[in-house]
Amino acid sequence: MSLPRGMKDFETDELSKIEYVRKTFLEICKTFSFNLMDPSPLELVSVIEAKSGPTIRDEIYFFKDKGDRDIALRFDFTVGLTRYLASQKSLKLPAKIAAFGGVWRYDEPQKGRYRFFHQWDLEIYGKPSLESDAEIIEFTSKFFSKLNLSGVIIDISHRKLVESVVAKVFQSTDSGLIADILRAIDKIQKKKKEEILKEYEQKGYPTDKLEKILEFSKIKGTPEQVEKQFDVSGLDAWNEIKLLFSSLKNRQVENVRINFGIVRGLDYYSGVVFEAFDTTSDYGALVGGGRYDSLPKAFGRDDLGATGVAGGVERIILSLEKQGMKKIDSSPTVSVLFVNEEMITPAVNIASQLRQLGIATDIDLVGRPFKKQIENASASKFSVIVAPKEYSTKQIVVKDMSDGKETVQTIDSLLSNAKSIFNL
Question: N or C end of the chain, less CB within 10 A?
């Protein structure tokens, strides 16, 4: 028996790392005053299509339910959160929402991205503002700092600016043409320039104009550096980028740069867009986000702007592991051992009382010999040994498993001073 292609079982070590990322995420959410939500894992296919159009069916898991409705598994958090926020007419704005959990995508499985994976997500809904965009980017920067992940750069661009450059080069405002060329820019990170040129030549696009756009997409740097490389005069969105960078500087966010090669593949983005990369690896974007004011409109809210970001947890863990992330110790603090069968009942009682105190405690469940219990307790920090001689005077032996040192404690003393005895 095997799993469906693209699925996997998550073992203890990987789940411990996912939990580490989750706890860090929730800690930063609290710092930034984001409220946690868990949108439904099931959506109507029509709701998901409101974001990405009918072609999204090729990338999602969907099925007919018993009511003959087209149902899809959660593709991301943005759709569910936007659907929910759009329905809350009396919600106080701006609304800052966070989510963390699993999503399903019918993509080709790859390193760090199975067809089911974990994602963290932030959204800010309300009146559009560059400060909201800056807040999302600052969170992203601080989150990676808190994870101690070094070498992360956040590449920022602006969809309207790139669209205006494409329109000028191709001398066309046709939305289909512009969207097609944006997809070519999006592919430059994954494909060779020659492959893209050949593909678009077959579609009838002039090679010289496409080459100009691909060269434009290579421009990176600070606002001052970009102004020396490219004529930005007459581009309205350029002022927005400069104001955004000014806000980020004020927020002490330093690991950012302009990168006109960032456009994000989804058509609903309408303003600032960005992706974060680990420059020490080649895993691709760790997070992606931007402004998408058009999506709330698809749910009937013309008055609601939106900006957000989402990150792939497993891919972030790959970067952490490459930079030396240690295995997260999930061993129990204490193992309670019994010398013989007569000591099983008092040993179980002591283990239960330690657990009530919130101390991670393990005990043998199948009556193994004492020698085998000692072997199995080697990963614990301490062992509590319940033996007939000591127990006859209501005492036990506490053994430090790191150096083998043993002390005798009364049971009452153990239970009243357990955290001190176990250095917690």
Answer: N
The residues pairing with 338 across neighbouring beta strands, listed in sequence order, are: 386
Together in a domain, 243 and 384: no
Residue 2 maps to a domain? no
* 139 and 175 both lie in a single domain: yes
Alpha helix ranges (H) inside 217-258: 223-229, 236-250
Q: How far apart are CA 220 and CA 217, in angstroms?
A: 8
340 shares a domain with 210: no
Domain termination residue (choose one: 322, 342, 369): 322
How far apart CA 308 and CA 96 sit, in angstroms, is 10
Q: Which residue has the tokens 């990150």?
A: 311
Residues 158 and 53 in one domain: yes
DSSP 291-359: E-THHHHHTT-TT-EEEEEEEEHHHHHHHHHHTTPPPP----SEEEEESSGGGHHHHHHHHHHHHHTT-
pLDDT at residue 266 in the model: 64
Residues 367 and 250 in one domain: no
Predicted confidence at residue 125, as pLDDT, reads: 97
Helix, coil or strand: residue 99: strand
Full domain range(s) for residue 359: 334-421
| Phi, psi torsion values for 258, nearest 5 degrees | -80, 140
Residues 326-332: contacts with CB under 8 Å, at least 24 apart: 327/13, 327/16, 328/13, 328/16, 328/17, 328/19, 328/20, 330/12, 330/13, 330/16, 331/379, 331/380, 331/381, 332/360, 332/361, 332/362, 332/379, 332/380
Q: What stretches in the chain show pLDDT beneath 70?
A: 265-267
